[in-house]
Design a protein that fits this description.
mainly alpha; signal
Length: 102
């Protein structure tokens, strides 16, 4: 680009001035919800913390199911939104399951 040309210089300055405004323009859609999730804790099951015996294949398949269920539920929430009030648990993959299991 030849900046000695007044037209080119004006175009360059206009671009430099307008770029920040274009990137900061308000969007028509803003998020209504936020999802936090903990790390998946693979391989982990509720029997792991309880110290109960489990085979490696059971542990791996159960852990995989727990993780897939968690992320499928998050994906479903992302698609369908919130239909009823949802309590917030700090660690849904571990403490939440332990609390539910007694």
């Amino acid at each position: 680009m030849n900046l000695s040309n007044p037209g080119s210089l004006l175009a360059c300055l206009a671009f430099a001035v307008m770029t920040p405004f274009a990137h900061s323009a308000a969007t028509t859609v803003s998020p209504m919800n936020m999802v936090f999730t903990s790390d998946p804790q693979y391989p982990w099951t509720e029997k792991t913390d309880a110290g109960e015996t489990q085979t490696d294949s059971y542990r791996d398949s159960r852990s995989k199911w727990l993780i897939e269920t968690q992320y499928n539920d998050i994906a479903s929430f992302d698609i369908h939104g919130l239909r009823k009030p949802m309590p917030v648990k700090p660690r849904p993959t571990r403490i939440g399951i332990r609390a539910l299991s007694g």
